Amino acid sequence: MLTRELIWPNSIVVVGASNNISKPGGKLLKNLIDNHFAGQLMAVNPNEEQVQGIPSWPSVDELPPVELAVLAIPARFCPEVAEILASRKGTKGFIVISAGFSEESEEGRKLEDQLVAVANKYKASLIGPNCIGIITPAHASVFTTPVPKLHQMGCDFISSSGATAVFIMESGIPKGLHFASVFSVGNSAQVGVEDVLEFMDDVFDPETSTRVKLLYIESITNPDKLLKHARSLIRKGCRIAAIKAGSSQAGSRAASSHTGAMASSDAAVEALFRKAGIVRCYGREELTTVANVFMCKEMKGKRMAIITHAGGPAVMLTDALEAGGLKIPKIEDSPQKQALKEKLFPGSSVENPIDFLATGNAEQLGAIIDACDRDFKEVNGMAVIYGSPGLFPVGDVYEVLNKKMHTCKKPIYPILPSVLNVKDDVAHFIQAGNVTFPDEVLLGRALSRVYNTPKPHEDRIYLEGVDIPEVRRIIDHAKDGYQSPEVVHRLFDAAGIPRVQERVAQTKEEALAFAEELGFPLVMKVIGPVHKTDVGGVVLNVRSAETVASEFKRLMAIPETTAVLMAEMASGIELFIGAKYEDRFGHIILCGMGGILVEVLKDVTSGLAPLTLCEASSMIKNLKSYQLIKGYRGQEGVNQRRFAEIIVRLSSLLRFATEIKEMDINPLLGKGDKIVAVDARIRIEK
Amino acid sequence: MLTRELIWPNSIVVVGASNNISKPGGKLLKNLIDNHFAGQLMAVNPNEEQVQGIPSWPSVDELPPVELAVLAIPARFCPEVAEILASRKGTKGFIVISAGFSEESEEGRKLEDQLVAVANKYKASLIGPNCIGIITPAHASVFTTPVPKLHQMGCDFISSSGATAVFIMESGIPKGLHFASVFSVGNSAQVGVEDVLEFMDDVFDPETSTRVKLLYIESITNPDKLLKHARSLIRKGCRIAAIKAGSSQAGSRAASSHTGAMASSDAAVEALFRKAGIVRCYGREELTTVANVFMCKEMKGKRMAIITHAGGPAVMLTDALEAGGLKIPKIEDSPQKQALKEKLFPGSSVENPIDFLATGNAEQLGAIIDACDRDFKEVNGMAVIYGSPGLFPVGDVYEVLNKKMHTCKKPIYPILPSVLNVKDDVAHFIQAGNVTFPDEVLLGRALSRVYNTPKPHEDRIYLEGVDIPEVRRIIDHAKDGYQSPEVVHRLFDAAGIPRVQERVAQTKEEALAFAEELGFPLVMKVIGPVHKTDVGGVVLNVRSAETVASEFKRLMAIPETTAVLMAEMASGIELFIGAKYEDRFGHIILCGMGGILVEVLKDVTSGLAPLTLCEASSMIKNLKSYQLIKGYRGQEGVNQRRFAEIIVRLSSLLRFATEIKEMDINPLLGKGDKIVAVDARIRIEK
């Protein structure tokens, strides 16, 4: 719920405005003035007629109507002031920079709830509390610096943390990063990161909207909303990078103590970002470097030319890019390559990296870039490394670079390492509107992160042969806890997940009858104990009625055993599918190969339900053990399409059965087209 | 061979000195003057009586005696000039900054060889050619900027690449990194990175020498020398970080085209660095961040306190540190913790991270640091995060930090993110001699790199029961190519590597006789085909003479088969040991579990021969499949000490048999104390 009045207000009042610009209420007003808010600006301060030259009222009661209010007053006064403004002055936007709310105490939480109630009642937007404010093209309502000069095609930046927002801007600005807007959502009482993103999606205009969004998130409150709008924006041509802090256990503890919010499980975040197409970053420098990559033209492919006047950085960049899966192809021989070589000094190399030597000049750089852009089809983008040993300025070189950044069709990533020797030339290059990458390896890693983040897949749920009403009937009748094999079988049958034929024998006579029905060889397993193998509760390859009888007796004597499961003995490669329900995110699905590969080597990949066939296939392909699934050294593999379909069917089943909190299919046995679930555990919690 | 005259000359001549400081010969002289070389400074320039106020001679012939000469003249003149200086002026140090030598052409290589011959003949040191020069406390003989003001306890920095040396200094200086010396070795014609390190090892003085060394290496010419002196320096208390560029295949191509040197295989570099205790870095920013970590006191342990006035960066740092294996332990309850809490504002947290809020002040920071240093035994070091939203300066806080950096026993890592808002305060903090870390995650990763680099192990070769003369006899008599089982067995017996009993049968009669000798069950395998299993050339669990006879016939009919190997059938966990000879480095030894774990999942660890027991044990422990080796779910594991000993015995064997270029023991079978080699391939190339 972001109102026009919040983004494009005609009038703003700063409640708690001050002449002291070391105070938030003073600095915020100063920022509004310095950044030329064009509408009516007012202040509320009980002791002044004017604050910083702006007309001031002693209290909000006397104010004329005002569209946006910034509250810089103690928390306990905020709800009442907001009520007056919303009810009597028509205010539809609130930015509450005051702290002392839910992040501090239970009492503060109540005040925050009251604020939200006021905003909701009057359909007003509420940003904060406990935030630094927002910067839109209309107004800079923040109490911090720097206040970046906004650029329409800069990045939209939304942050859960005010201080971190400041530090991220301080990391980006010196590298030439521009901003189109900044939103610090603080405690996200009414408007969270997801809501701002939704707003950006709703108002997206392909002609005028920026295509880069940066997020700093401490807690994902509404994963569905984040997924929906991130995916939608990316499909519209946007690129999104985000930090979700709190990926480690201790980090989550720190995140919780900071925002008072429960941290989400990191695997779920990982899966969500991948599904949405969000480039995940882990630090400020990384985020702003990825942002600068986004500010360059998009690279259509993974083959880079490295253009350099110094060998070392080119080698390090090559290493970083190749480690990330990108390629530095050799430039193929051609008349154009020969012509370029003739323009360079003897000893230059027009292989790749293209090294035009320490003495290489501006004109030569122009020729190399043109050749890469027009002639060398084998490259999709260029990194240009040009520093200075400090003998003379390099402004002419950077001017060529500046021009080519605008005219070339392929992206150019400028690496300008000489932040001391040609400080002024670098500053001038940035002032011309360009980004720079001071460190080639940080660029290489950022490019790799971007390259390795898949575009979002289609989001249609696969339902062929999945009987949702039947799934619901089974779930609705199930009791909490681990389910009996019968329930598991019915669920699998309802979702079209193939399984081995099984029977549950309570008596020796039943066991013998089932053996006859299923045929030999058979498997017999205890029902009851959790780790069946550890207690000797699994018998494979049972081939006679006598063995059925003797083993039944032995198995029933194992503690906790309530019955014996009889099953046809399937064969093939052991596969694994697991799922875990994460609060708010839904089910994380894992797949891999069974046995030690999942238990010891943890070779699993994950995705967020519901999965598409394409997503499930990519999960399978990303397994380290993929080669075994394809078939290895004469052993028949499994049909991957079929394995993917089973994963997808399970994910569709789970989408309609959120009461299933945990489940494993371990193993499925697969040989060619035949893949069957052999054993499964499902835990329901309503 | 680094002479006193190179490092501490009483007189220097710049040959090719110029009044134009845009020229290397002009800038170098200027740097010598500006940095106050205290000895006699001279110039050679055919057209001037004085250059930049320094007396000049028309040619070297007329010069008085001079200890160090810097040559900034065309390559073709250098050998002759050097000869005159060395033979007639007593010059014992040469720094050749001219290019146009081996890096450019075959002709240049000859000039370079002549230069080296001159230097060697007169026992003079030669730095370069094709370098930027060196900076020692006595003289700044470089033609580039920046010329850092040297600090005795800054870092010694040695670089293969001049431009990269400049860019690394430009990366480090703004973060407060100090240098004690800088060596750019260029083409390393006589003196390479290893030789400078040797010199530093030889002159190391525990009272006065700096303990931090940084290396940028494009090619490791003498791995043994690098290993020896890096290890020696680290044992003396030094810390070394290095970039070895060219880790990827394409990167190596780039490195080769740059220096004209063959790139070393990256696995060997990795193993060498680990063995020496060198912290490996991959980029400039990473190297200078690790260097700044080294500039702080050494952390004795892995448990960090994070002290912050802002939540976000603390969470991201926690994530980065935990991902790297470090710990952020909760601060235990104690009267000291309670007392500290009372000094902080309400809402502060004295768990860990210790968050003293946006309003936290200098006095509180001092109290927190003191408590962490003195009272909180559960932490070994502190990261302090303190930026500014731009409301007021924070000089008082940084002054406290500055004082505590010097007085505390535990290391403090200062993270000052507000590079714009409190730029002057940060600059002042750096001017006081401190380092800073602008980005907490880059610090976290650097600390992790340092923490995860083991200290060097002892370097004694394990020889108990390894019969070196016998090994040499076998090798000397062996032909090139893959060896017969007999040769393999004799080598293993000589090194004390246990193996299954085997016999080679050429006829059915022999096969039957051996079966009787070895006893059943037996394994029979073809000799000849390389992938024995793929051609159906392995028969397990042979239990009768009839089977021996029939399988012998079948196996001999398989193409390329020359005989059949008969072996006792061992059982247990499949293990793997492999080795590969890398030119100049020696043997890289790999270990892991056999079968798919090595072939598909590539779960191997590596080390450089000769290995110690301790190194081999750590290779085993670092396997992903380590849990299986220990024993898993009721299956007996293997005695790790015994496995490590076999790895060490193999590495000792190889140390004396460099003719072995490749070998695999695959599998070894292990059960408890019994580990035996079942199959092995050894390729010799003399």
From TrEMBL, chains A, B:
InterPro entries: ATP-grasp (IPR011761), ATP_grasp_subdomain_1 (IPR013815), CoA-bd (IPR003781), NAD(P)-bd_dom_sf (IPR036291), Succ_CoA_lig_flav_dom (IPR032875), Succinyl-CoA_synth-like (IPR016102)
Coiled coil: none
Ranges where the ATP-grasp domain occurs: 489-525
Stored SMART domains: CoA_binding
Highest taxon above the source species: Bacteria
Keywords: ATP-binding, Ligase, Nucleotide-binding
GO terms for MF: ATP binding; ligase activity; metal ion binding
Pfam families: ATP-grasp_5, CoA_binding_2, Succ_CoA_lig
Alphabetized PANTHER family for the sequence: COA BINDING DOMAIN CONTAINING PROTEIN, PEPTIDYL-LYSINE N-ACETYLTRANSFERASE PATZ
Protein known as: Acetate--CoA ligase family protein
